[in-house]
Design a protein that fits this description.
- The complex is a heterodimer of chains A (353) and B (423).
- Chain A has 353 residues and is mainly α.
- Helices cover 63% and strands 7% of the residues of chain A.
- Chain A has helices at residues 2-41, 60-66, 95-98, 126-158, 164-171, 173-176, 179-189, 197-204, 218-246, 250-259, 263-291, 295-300, 308-317, 322-346, and strands at 68-73, 85-86, 89-90, 107-114, 117-123.
- Chain A is globular and about 80 Å long.
- Chain A starts with a helix and ends in a 7-residue tail after the last helix.
- With 423 residues, chain B is α/β, with parallel strands linked by helices.
- In chain B, strand 4 and strand 5 (126-127) form a beta hairpin.
- In chain B, helix 9 crosses helix 10.
- Classes of the chains: A mainly alpha (353), B alpha/beta (423).
């Protein structure tokens, strides 16, 4: 009897294997082959839309993208060796003199002060490093804002009130509008003169003259695009969290009321712990999405400010550098992979639980 | 007999259907341009019933269009037959277009165009595109406002322009127009900024970024001064948002009557006549510095036939139709685009129309300054990107002109391998 079962079991295993082969083949063609090709191209100097000879470069593309250095900026001294002051502030040497030039030229990404000294972060591809910094900042802030706002909206919509059905539908509108359309609408609203809504509004209430250049001013670029993304994606988070809230049994709250716990205590002791699995899923979704942000940056900023994904695109098409852009894609893949691993470890996402 | 006639019928039917050809033609996406393209396509289709011409809209910005085209070329796509290409692209994109000289009709027709543009479009002896219309940057100015504030004629130097613009702006603001600015131009980080900046630099004796002989000349005191002058306009006589302006943004401000001066291409002429400003404006050559010569960047678009097209002969024929004398005349009258055939400038139909100014400005267009696309081919697009990024950093105040041009010189050398002038 046992022998027959194991023979049957083996037969089923083999059949299962053969049934899986078509899907594996499909996966190979659609996913593994293109990925492998990108990986292969990243070691070459292939050019886009060109019949130029392709040659093998080894890790040159990677070193071009990732070489970074931190150098100290010395203070500018006059002939006596005393520090020169401009408007009362110390002046530092220009980074052009400090960053290395051979074998590759380093450009400044950022300057910062630490323990009283000034440092400059240099990179051979300052655009790429800046795009990574910008995208990670963008991700952290948007995910934080969207989770908090989404949770507030979900909590509000969990209670019964007149017009709740209407509110739930209305809440989805920003997320339902096509990204291209809503980005263009926001671009018009952020226009730099009073034909743009925000400038007209700020001018009307007297804060500014109505000439703020939201999309060119380096300090205002990220906040503007974060605002657009939060407006667009908070409904998505709210929807996920609403679904999660619906799974919490009402009896727990009733029991808590009886025990004398106030609303805040209830939230932290009942709602949050039981919402944790849904929150985890929502966070992972949003973070990985935000790290891959492309359409928003391409429409609003074009080549003025890159995200990791638009950097890859513009390197490919504008600079016609397919090899470098493939290397950038591989690096971005690893960065996103790291984030995913970090989430899975810290939030203890259990595949079998 | 019956069998024979049947076979004949089938063959004729086959020939007839085989002749039904669809040509896809990519143009820009400005409303007037698309309308015009459709009108011309309809005209051609009425005399060639077996041809269907589809007009496709490409992105507005020249930079975006170049990228769009490159994607078609990478895929070796036969989806588009005719490409409208900028005057600076033949060098970079030559390998993807057919040689129009292989058709006798073009060998004859090429004589009728401006030789300089034909030369621009000839790469290694191949004529890769036929000139469609040419363009040069012009200064538009409000004649009524100049009169109102006591100025007798258009400015000839940048300093004069600055002065006039400040006076007019202050006056109009005092009169209650809060949105009025003196001078609008294109300052966004894209190809259009290369055009504007080249005009500032060339008109200040600062060279043309890379000389035709192939030397990098951009890092010189005149060029530095020119960029600093332009930086001085941002926020004073030009809106702070000018660093985000493309052609249409500048034209919108001008069209609404909120600018005294505008730098733009001739296409804006006809559109302004149709708007609130009406006839209260005129055009002149752009200013220069004292001792410099006015410089207008050479623009213009050409028509090229894709190497991957399935019907190159038919596409080439339509191209010839669009760029014929009649086609160019109608383009000038309807779209205010400058013809590329000298004969059109002496045609009475043009001289008696609203756009007769074209004939008067022929010397300006003939002397237009070309961007260094030939000297830096096939890397012109990246050269331009380095240049306009550097200029944009100066305009936004992120870099000083001295630093920006010094770095630009090194970057250009890394990219093109060309020598730096004077080294």
């Amino acid at each position: 009897m046992a022998k027959e079962t194991s023979k049957l079991a083996k037969k089923e295993e083999r059949m299962a294997f053969w049934l899986l082969v078509p899907s594996l083949l499909l996966l190979l063609i659609i996913a593994i082959y293109p990925l492998g090709r990108v990986f292969q191209l990243s070691f070459t100097n292939k050019r886009f839309a060109s019949s130029q000879q392709v040659s093998y470069l080894g890790f040159k593309n990677y070193s071009q993208l990732l070489s970074m250095t931190i150098r100290e900026l010395p203070k500018k001294l006059d002939d006596d060796g005393k520090a020169i002051l401009k408007d009362g502030k110390v002046v530092y040497e220009s980074w052009v003199r400090v960053l290395p030039r051979k074998p590759q030229r380093y450009k400044a990404v950022n300057q910062f002060s630490f323990l009283g000294k000034r440092y400059v972060l240099g990179a051979t591809n300052a655009d790429f490093i800046q795009s990574i910094i910008d995208t990670v900042n963008f991700t952290i802030i948007t995910v934080l804002l969207e989770t908090i706002l989404g949770l507030i909206i979900a909590l509000a919509l969990a209670k019964k009130f007149i017009g709740r059905g209407l509110m739930r539908t209305a809440m989805l509108i920003p997320w339902a509008i096509i990204t291209v359309v809503s980005s263009l609408i926001w671009e018009w609203m952020l226009k730099s003169d009073r034909s743009g809504f925000f400038n007209a509004f700020f001018d009307a209430i007297g804060i500014t003259q109505g000439n703020t250049v939201f999309l060119v001013d380096k300090a205002l670029q990220l906040p503007s695009i974060i605002a657009i993304d939060v407006w667009k994606t908070t409904p998505f988070m709210a929807l996920l969290l609403l679904a999660g809230l619906a799974t919490i049994p009402k009896e727990l709250y009733e029991a808590a009321e009886v025990d004398g716990a106030n609303k805040i205590r209830q939230f932290f002791s009942i709602t949050l712990p039981l919402l944790a699995p849904t929150l985890t899923v929502a966070l992972i979704f949003r973070t990985l999405d935000a790290l891959r942000v492309f359409d928003l940056f391409q429409i609003i900023f074009g080549e003025k400010r890159y995200s990791m994904a638009t950097f890859t695109q513009f390197t490919l098409v504008a600079n016609k550098d397919m090899g470098l852009s493939s290397a950038a894609s591989v690096i971005i893949f690893f960065i996103i992979f790291l984030f995913a691993m970090f989430y899975i470890r810290t939030l203890k996402v259990d595949a079998d639980g | 007999m019956k069998k024979f006639s049947l076979i004949l019928l089938v063959i004729l039917f086959g020939l007839a259907t085989a002749q039904q050809v669809t040509i896809n033609y990519v143009t820009g996406n400005r409303g007037a341009d698309v309308e015009y393209a459709n009108a011309m396509a309809a005209k051609y289709m009425s005399t060639h019933p077996n041809v269907t011409i589809k007009v496709l809209q490409g992105p507005e910005s020249a930079t975006d269009r170049a990228q769009q085209y490159l994607q078609f070329f990478e895929a070796k796509s036969s989806e588009v037959d005719i490409f409208e290409i900028d005057v600076i692209w033949p060098g970079d994109m030559a390998e993807h277009f057919i040689d129009l000289y292989q058709y006798e009709s073009f060998q004859d027709a090429a004589q009728g165009f401006f030789p300089a543009i034909i030369e621009n479009n000839t790469v290694d002896g191949k004529l890769v595109a036929i000139p469609y219309f040419t363009d040069a940057g012009l200064l538009f100015y409000r004649t009524d406002l100049l009169e109102k504030y006591g100025f007798s004629s258009a400015p000839t130097t940048w300093a004069e322009l600055d002065n006039m613009a400040s006076v007019i702006q202050a006056g109009e603001r005092a009169d209650g127009n809060q949105d009025f600015w003196g001078y609008v131009w294109q300052g966004n980080a894209y190809e259009g900024l290369t055009c504007d900046a080249l005009e500032w630099v060339a008109s200040s004796n600062g060279g043309t970024i890379v000389s035709p002989a192939g030397e990098i000349t951009i890092n010189n005191p005149n060029a530095i001064a020119a960029l600093e002058t332009a930086k001085g306009w941002v926020g004073t006589i030009s809106p702070p948002g000018v660093t985000g302006y493309q052609e249409e943004d500048a034209r919108n401000a001008w069209h609404a009557g909120n600018a005294a001066f505008m730098r733009n291409w001739p296409y804006a002429y006809g559109l302004t006549l149709d708007g609130p400003v009406g006839e209260n404006f005129s055009i002149s050559a752009l200013p220069s510095t004292e001792g410099g010569n006015s410089a207008a960047t050479l623009g213009g678009w050409q028509l090229a036939v894709s190497k991957y097209s399935k019907n190159p002969a038919v596409a080439a024929d339509f191209v010839l139709f669009l760029s014929s004398h009649e086609g160019q005349l109608s383009r000038a009258l309807v779209q205010s685009n400058l013809p590329t055939r000298p004969a059109v400038y002496t045609d009475p139909a043009l001289l008696n129309s609203d756009v007769a100014f074209m004939a008067n400005f022929l010397p300006v267009f003939r002397a237009a300054v070309a961007r260094p696309s030939t000297a830096t081919a096939p890397n012109y697009l990246q050269t331009s990107k380095l240049f306009y990024s550097a200029v944009h950093n100066v305009l936004t105040g992120e870099e000083s002109a001295t630093d920006a041009l010094a770095l630009l010189e090194l970057d250009l050398q890394d990219l093109t391998g060309l020598p730096i002038a004077g080294q």
